[in-house]
From TrEMBL:
InterPro entries: MeTrfase_RsmB-F_NOP2_cat (IPR049560), MeTrfase_RsmB-F_NOP2_dom (IPR001678), RCMT (IPR023267), SAM-dependent_MTases_sf (IPR029063). It comes from Balaenoptera acutorostrata (Common minke whale). Residues 79-383 form the SAM-dependent MTase RsmB/NOP-type domain. This is 5-cytosine rRNA methyltransferase NSUN4. The gene is NSUN4. One of its GO terms (cellular component) is mitochondrial large ribosomal subunit. Keywords: Methyltransferase, Mitochondrion, RNA-binding, rRNA processing, S-adenosyl-L-methionine, Transferase, Transit peptide. The lineage of its organism: Eukaryota, Metazoa, Chordata, Craniata, Vertebrata. One of its GO terms (biological process) is rRNA methylation. S-adenosyl-L-methionine binds at C181, A182, A183, P184, G185, G186, K187, D204, D237, D255.
Amino acid sequence: MAALVGKGVRDMLKRADFMTVPRRQRHKKKWAATEPKFPATRLALQNFDMTYGVQFGDLWPSIRVSLLSEQKYGALVNNFAAWDRVSAELEQLSARDFVNEAIFHGEPEPENGQTAAPPPASWACSPNLRCFTFARGDVSRFPPARLGSLGVMDYYLMDAASLLPVLALGLQPGDTVLDLCAAPGGKTLALLQTGCCRNLAANDLSTSRAGRLQKVLHSYVPQDVRDRNRVRVTSWDGRKWGELEGDIYDRVLVDVPCTTDRHSLHEEENNIFQRSRKKERQMLPVLQVQLLAAGLLATKPGGHVVYSTCSLSHLQNEYVVQGTIELLANQYGVKVHVEDLTHFRKLFMDTFSFFPSCQVGELVIPNLMANFGPMYFCKMCRMT
């Protein structure tokens, strides 16, 4: 009875408060004209709870809380700036160059006075990359990058796991390189930092995103270097690249559009879980297969491709790789070999948390102590 009275009083007070507002000034909230009832970020989390809860089992609660927490960044040193000074300044912040630290510690030890056998060529990382991160559990932030004395920015802040596909690509001096889905430009910039690109084609279907890529290149890479490396920025349909420039490239990076899992949990803008984009989201694996197939067809026989996403979904990761290899074998007679990246996982396990059970490729999973990723990457060699 008391509850009913209380409810009656609250209703009366609401009506009294509403009645004090002149009718012409009253405003009834219209959901359709304002925000959606279910934000895309909430729809994304519901989707992930259903799918990733099954896919990752007991690991999902840990991954989930990490995805919802602030991510960590790495500082990719700009080799076209005063890189030695920049590196020294980053070291003073107690950050460490995870790339060169891992490569140094990963060199084989000589046994019984004998010279250690060199690792296989397929194990080689792309050279000349310096990326600083804070240690596990250290949630310090890097200060914003600034313009250096040489007229270009000192470093580029990025999810450090995003550098792994570029490292895995194993660039060699004089390579012709294609970045098929290049914007916003962090991986393209890293490819240029290696100093290995004889030609670099950087493509993105979206002209606005290609514009962002151009801004990154202008901020970090001197004009003469862009000219010398013959950097070409285009906005073509990447699915047709195999027809446009087949059998040309030594190295191809295919960093495809995906559900961008971390972004989808934090940003409403450009969120693929918006109800209006449901069909687009469902068709993502088809688009990803088409782009990877085009990247492999653009590669010379004997050349290498790295496929990558920032999604945890095996439908967008391993299944796309396996489906594309089957497609190329059946429709084009092209044989593709997936390279084992177990050594790569061991090399960088001090910095990143890797999922131990990928069928093909490697997956960095977010972890509160090392909150990078997600980042999936798989390296392939076109055999024929």
